[in-house]
Amino acid sequence: MSAPQTNLDKQEKQHRGPLRGMALVVVFALLLLGGFMLWTSSSSDGIEGADTQTDARTGQSVEAETGEAVPATDAPATAAPAATGN
């Protein structure tokens, strides 16, 4: 079935106001989202993590506060148990 009255010019004029209102609501929501993102990034305390972190490029332990390398400990490495064939 088709619509009984299809005067597109009249319908376009009747819906212009509500469509503009919906567009304004979307713009306002995007502004709120952008403001929230800026506020949360500016009010954060920074990255939290362990006191000693591992540099992914070198594999060396690094002090988080000073950025200086930490000497490696001589702890023995533990190996995974050997697989037994059944």
Largest sheet: 2 strands, antiparallel
The radius of gyration is 31 Å
Instruction: Extract low-pLDDT stretches.
Output: none
Give the overall average pLDDT. 78
The neighbouring-strand order within the major sheet is: 1-2
What's the β-strand tally? 2
Distance between the termini: 73 Å
* Tally of contiguous helical segments: 1
Strand composition percent: 5-15%
Computed structural class:
mainly alpha
Shape: elongated
Keywords: Membrane, Transmembrane, Transmembrane helix
Biased composition (Low complexity): 69-86
Transmembrane segments: 21-39
Biased composition (Polar residues): 43-63
Walk me through this protein's architecture.
By secondary structure, the protein is mainly alpha-helical. The protein has a domain at 8-41. Helix content is 41%, strand content 7%. It contains one helix and two strands. Strands 1-2 form a two-stranded antiparallel ribbon. Strand 1 and strand 2 (61-63) form a beta hairpin. It is elongated. The N and C termini lie far apart (73 Å).
Tell me briefly what this model is.
By secondary structure, the chain is mainly alpha-helical.
Map the helices and strands.
Layout (H helix, E strand, L loop, with lengths): L7 H35 L9 E3 L6 E3 L23
Antiparallel strand pairs: 1-2
Protein traits:
86 residues, 7% strand, elongated, two-stranded antiparallel ribbon, 1 helix, 41% helix, membrane, 2 strands, mainly alpha, transmembrane, single chain
